[in-house]
Write a structure and sequence with these properties.
Elements: E1 4-7, E2 10-13, E3 16-17, H1 18-25, E4 29-33, H2 34-47, E5 54-58, H3 65-73, E6 77-80, H4 83-91, E7 99-101, H5 108-117, E8 121-124, H6 127-140, E9 144-151, E10 173-174, H7 175-185, E11 191-197, H8 208-227, E12 233-235, H9 252-264, E13 269-272, H10 276-279, E14 283-295, E15 298-303, H11 312-316, E16 322-324, E17 346-351, E18 360-367, E19 375-378, E20 399-404, E21 407-412, H12 417-421
Parallel strand pairs: 4-20, 5-6, 5-13, 6-7, 7-8, 8-9, 9-10, 9-11, 11-12, 12-13, 15-17
Antiparallel strand pairs: 1-2, 2-3, 4-14, 14-15, 14-19, 16-19, 17-18, 20-21
Helix pairs in contact: 5-6, 7-8, 8-9
This protein binds pyridoxal-5'-phosphate and lysine.
Length: 429
Amino acid sequence: MDHFHYRDRDLYCEDLPAAELADRFGTPLYVYSASAFVDRLAELHSAFAALDPLVCYSVKANSNLGLLKLMAGHGSGFDVVSGGELYRVRKAGGAPSKTVFAGVGKTDEEIREALRAGVMLFNVESEAELEAIDAVARAEGVKAPIALRVNPDVDPKTHRYISTGKKESKFGMDVDRALLAAESVLGMRGLAMTGLHMHIGSQITSTEPYAHASARAAELVDRLRGMGHEITWCNMGGGFGIDYRGGESRPIAEFAEVMVPVLRETGCRLAMEPGRSIAGNAGVLLSRVIFTKQSGDKRFVIQDAAMNDLIRPALYEGFHRIWPVRVPEGSPSWPDDFEAPIPGTEPRDVVGPVCESGDFLAKDRALPPTARGDLLAVFSAGAYGMVMASNYNTRPRAAEVLVQGSEATLVRRRETYDDLLGPELDVPS
Ligand SMILES: Cc1ncc(COP(=O)(O)O)c(C=O)c1O
Ligand SMILES: N[C@@H](CCCC[NH3+])C(=O)O
């Protein structure tokens, strides 16, 4: 099922018209399709079934409590990178025993909390971190289950800001260092190395880097076992790319095709940490046009979603398809190709109200004529959208709504100005 689709000229999320959601909950508004989350989880499970997989949904992509609850209810595990994310997972009823904890800078306090919660694996990113976890675990009288995060030195051919598996990355350890570290783990009483971890980057749209990484992983599992480590988990991270423009992603089954035969040889269970490939196309951001204007030859659409709501265009030159919620006559209800000329459109910059020239959602984008009050939909906004939102310009963060069939549940209300005062303290005069 196509979770977001046009019926005639109106955008729907599952069985609900997007315009109705915008009227009911206000804009800007993040709209998520529950079925999109659940279907994608099922697709991952079935593609990798031969490896008895545990999908650890990467909370950083979208940490809305309602969504975490939905995922936990469907048996998902979680990938967290902070004490805060672990706290949210637990609040949502997620099982720590299905939760992996990554991050290059875990504090002793976070390590202790995670140990007490009983996380499934710490993904360890440096020698210094091994020592820290060992010390905390011994003080707690337990053994911490760990996996070394190894950089297989493959180029994932993605944006440089979201490439992580190269030798020179701040994440993980290169293979040689990891092997030395693995030797030293044998002498650490607070650690039990039960897994191997890799994550090579994000928004990866070819299978080749995964084929390389899987081969390296299989080799390494052998070597670690040779040293005496009982490796039972192979965690290949996240990173599967999605369609932002349309047509660039690969089906999950194609990634599985290159990974499964290699990893099956290890006899390990597969853990994975998909974020974007689950959440990305399960969400859209709805906005309402405030004004239109022309400056020189440029036409601007000023709408109420800004860089504080969705920073990907400003930060990574991220491309998000934008199309009216109700498409006017004379334009296609859904263009086949957003980068080719589209009849009934003119190039426009879609910008927000924030006081920065970098506050844009799209530049020179083909859009049908729009007027004050019209609604726009910004697609593929379910991952790294709301989680990266801020209150810049003292703008309340958007509401989030979860749609299932013809039911809409508000899973986060729009912030009020009072919410924005937060824990800030009045300075005594
Ligand atoms: C260690 C780790 N796991 C999982 C993810 C999730 O990646 P993605 O959203 O691309 O699936 C990331 C982010 O790149 C990550 O750094
Ligand atoms: N925030 C990035 C992805 C970060 C990947 C996290 N390791 C994006 O929006 O594309």
